[in-house]
Amino acid sequence: MEEGDQRALQLFLPTSVCLRSDTKKSSIENDASNHPLVDLNLSMGFSGLDSSDEESNRYTKRKKELQQQAAEQIRVATAENAFAERMRELTRRELELAERDFARARAIWERAKEEMAKVERMKEIATRRINSTCLEITCHNCHQRFRP
Question: Residue 1 burial by CB count (10 A; 0-12/13-18/19+): exposed, middle or buried?
Fold first, then answer.
């Protein structure tokens, strides 16, 4: 065994068990069997596997977080879309009502304009009649015509 390997093994063995480069394999087995408290927890593996599992867990966790965020954004966007659609519908209705009101106002204005024209004609006719009537009025004493 190399000296570095022995040091690594010595770290796991109790102080009563010592490994030397000159001891034989059988003496190591005897020493280990004489000490039942010796617990050699040796595991083979690559330390990167644990980190890759952790990395996989982090990746999975991050993926779930992103999916939740995406789902929340979709929910918010759907709600905003529904709100916008509702507002468009209300705006359309208001526009239709405004157009109807404007059409009614225009019709009222047209009727008022026609009535004003009719009143103006009636006024002209009345003025002419009054003028002609005034011309016919004469004073009986002086026989002069009445001037308004």
Answer: middle
